[in-house]
Amino acid sequence: MGEYKDKAKGLANEAIGNTKQAIGKATDNERLRAEGEAQERKGEAQNLKGKVKGALGDKI
């Protein structure tokens, strides 16, 4: 069950990160763009964690 929770959190963080990046680019706000990029990477890592949990059967 934890795999789905991690994947959902990961997708949410990726979406929020992409939005922050777009707003940062549109407003020429480098800090917001960088924050969005970091959040997107965090989401990608969470999504990967969920995939690994799924492959290992939630044993981690």
From TrEMBL:
Domain CsbD-like: 6-56
UniProt-annotated stretches for the region Disordered: 1-60
Domain of life assignment: Bacteria
Pfam families attached to this UniProt entry: CsbD
Basic and acidic residues bias: start-end ranges: 27-44
Family as reported in the entry's similarity comment: Belongs to the UPF0337 (CsbD) family.
Protein name according to UniProt: Uncharacterized protein YjbJ (UPF0337 family)
Organism: Sphingopyxis panaciterrulae
